[in-house]
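lol ok so funny story. i was supposed to be doing the assay writeup but got distracted and ended up predicting the structure for this chain instead. priorities right. anyway since i did it might as well share w the group, maybe its usefull for someone
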Amino acid sequence: MPDLSADCWRGRWCREVRDSNDDGWREYDDAVPIVATTLQLLAEHGPLGPV
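and the output, tada:
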C-alpha cells in the first residue's frame, strides 16, 4: 500500500551520462518529505535520535 503514495515522496530520478559513467540523483522539488518514527524510539532517543 505505501507504493500508492510513492510519487508524492520519492522524488524524480535524474541521470547524466558522462565519461562512460552513468551517475544519477533524485530531485525533490515537487516532493513532500515524510519522516516517521515510533513513540518508543522518540522517548528513548529524543527528537534528534535515529528515525
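The longest strand covers residues 12-18. The helical segments are 6-9, 39-45.
back to the writeup now i swear
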